[in-house]
Amino acid sequence: MPDLSDTIRRRYDRIAPLFDKMDRMVKDKYRAELLGQVRGEVLEVGVGTGVNLPLYPEGLHVTAIDFSPRMLRYAEERAKKSRARVRLLHMDVQHLQFEDDTFDSAVSTCVFCSVPDPVAGLREIRRVLKPEGRLYMIEHMLSDHLPIALLLHVLNPLVVRMVGANVNRKTMENLRLAGFSIDRVRFIGFVDVFRMIVASPNKADQAHE
Asked: For the whole model, what pTM was predicted?
């Protein structure tokens, strides 16, 4: 049986030329607002075609990863236009190849809908964040409103088959399971499906795992 990560990687390699149009579900103004909060050494997971890269503030050091080689090839052009200093790496968020406590900030925008084991990926981010670090996210997830949630559950098998993304992930719960504390949440689209989130790693709990 093929590995799920490999299956999703192949799908994202296939849709890379069309990904920009799909990724415009989140407006640049929200991306810029989110990225304006980051500081220090930054890790962006699931950089895709690099739509965030031109929006980073000047002078930041950004390490941006993706598990799709074809996505990274598209991101290279945007990295050249970024005001930040960008390093692109082929890597899976579920298996980050960084030391503990490496980054001051981590960023994800519409990534954890497609990570095969989202809690494992979030735990890896928590591991590589410094104790005072923050995770900055824009993610779409399962609605708290029952009619919308039921619709997303019905649509999910079709969306997963087409692009490998889940539209019914319980991302707030997954963050807590991964050991994050939620600092701020803001609804930014489709009632409560799209959310801007800032979360802190709970390093005290991590020491006892």
From this structure: 0.88
Are 180 and 200 in contact by the 8 Å Cβ rule? The answer is yes
Tokens of 134: 């923050």
Q: Indicate the SS3 state at residue 207.
A: coil
CA distance 117 to 115: 6
Residue in the block written with tokens 């095969």 = 116
Which residue has 């559950």 as its token pair?
A: 153
pLDDT single digits (tens) 82-114: 999 999 999 999 999 999 999 999 999 999 998
Classify strands 129-140 and 194-201 as parallel, antiparallel or unpaired.
antiparallel
Looking up tokens 């980051």 gives 38
Query: CA of 75: how far to CAs of 19, 52, 80, 150, in Å?
Result: 11, 10, 9, 35
CA distance 105 to 117: 21
